[in-house]
Predict the structure.
Amino acid sequence: MVYEKAPAKINLTLDILHKRKDGFHEVEMIMTSIDLSDRLFFEVLTKDVIIVDSENRYVPNDHRNLAYQAAKVFKKQCGIRSGVKIDIDKNIPVAAGLAGGSSDAAATIRGLNRLFSTGLSNEQMEKMAEQIGSDVPYCIQGGTQLAKGRGEVLTPLPPLPACYVVLAKPKIGVSTKEVYGKVDLNNMIHPNNELAIKALEDQDFQAVCDQMVNVLEPITMNMHKEISPIKEQMDNADADGVLMSGSGPTVYAIVKQQSKAERIYNSLKGFCEEVYVVHSLR
Ligand code: ATP
């Protein structure tokens, strides 16, 4: 049995540069891992099957599961004939903008690499991950990284300075595809990734907060009226930085002080379906 932790990510920035000929958007975004993780357990089966069990009613356990897809690609490319059982203890909210499925897929590649002693390098695992989804290569190593291209051109960055992250997810699921479909390239406020990277290099927490911009935020907010009151509540509670992650709907606040994190958490509990306080991950 092999165990892997699959951490969620938040976007410190998310920019879209243009739409490519292949239909994907060219992105430039800074992501960072947080201490809210799924736990995955891998076992070898003698019969050549892939069994996924997530015990979560929002997550399919068949070929649609991203961990299943990762196992299929891994087995094919590494020539593995035995089967595998994957148990997923799901803690990351689903369809939330936190890359839960992508992180499970990446953890599956890492986990099977250990289970079958295949000795793939991080670069080889990232290449394999590209076939499963745009955020999966980032999730192989996680941490704080700049992601370009579709998300697969990665540059490691200094970590987000240690802080508390308060996450609030309203009771709606957001389709990433639908949000990207509404992108209007002539009408968006872009983040300044150069300044955001400089802030990380300087380990200047407030400067990082000042550079937090996500071009998808106004789009998802327009589609779902539940999101902006959460942002307002976090701002009113004096959060250091507030942003929607990915295509949403999860909104997060980052703060240095524990007392502030608790205040924000308490102000949102009861108001929002799922609220968490976690740490940034270095
Ligand atoms: P991203 O931030 O990468 O856009 P997300 O956090 O918005 O992702 P996920 O939680 O990955 O979204 O779920 C998106 C969809 O993928 C869900 O509708 C879910 O049914 C499906 N899915 C497939 N496999 C998984 C998995 N292992 N965990 C969660 N969702 C999965």
